[in-house]
Write a structure and sequence with these properties.
296 residues; Aminopeptidase; two-stranded parallel ribbon; globular
Amino acid sequence: MKNFTWLLGLVTVACGASGPEFQEFEGDVAYTYVEQQVAFGPRVPNTTGHVAAGDWIIERLRATADSVETQEWVHVTLEGDSLRMRNIIGRFRPDVPSRILYVAHWDTRPKADKSQNLAQQQMPVPGANDGGSGVAVLLGVADALRANPSNFGVDLLFVDGEDYGVFAEESDVLIGSKYFAANLPEGYAPLFGVVWDMVGDFNQRFEKEANSVNGAPEVVTRVWARADDIGYGRVFRNSFGLEITDDHVPLLEAGLRVIDVIDLDYPHWHTTEDTVDKVSAESLQVVGDVAMALLR
Ligand SMILES: [Zn+2]
């Protein structure tokens, strides 16, 4: 393992413009994970597509991770609906105390309220990028760790119910990350964590998100520096972005050092046009490479 890390370091010095020479994360395969999720249909809680996608994530993790755990509960919304919720956690080397946490939401938004016309606004978001891309990155990381374990323990957390309700009121959103924050595994204190959300569009660009900079600046520095090391400084920009309410917020509030890597500059956000043709395998490759470099 040490020799491998050393070799990777040499290679990246030699060709820093376009990512590591040895790409253990496979962007093309990750892209098929986006296609598979969208093929299940919208992953809206209490629908068959949601159940099927959750079962599929568990199946993928059973083939790759050392252990798979779920948290299942019922969330009652402001309107009184009961949602069947499921967080899924794939753990690699669960006995190792030095751990890294990666998070993605696996649900999709029930209403495409940013769509142009009223009829579309009542339809669900397909969620290729918003939901699908983050899950695809985590599953690609799982494949790479299966082939070549990290010295760190790694936890891949798929949270439910991120995108269900109203962000302005913070009602019925971030449901799974709030639940996880309130029900942490005993003594759980990862070294750091990253939420990967909306990471796969063609015009990929990440700015340092404000809640992350305020809550865990050392993690922002670490992630951006690692991205720059392997030649992705043009994507992970040295600039400050908006304050975004995402799954890292409840985790930060629970004392975990977790940041949000998100590209909210996406014209199809919360519309019916968030479809697989808007996602790029090359962009998934970039974030997958960064995610893996942080584990080496
Ligand atoms: Zn969303």
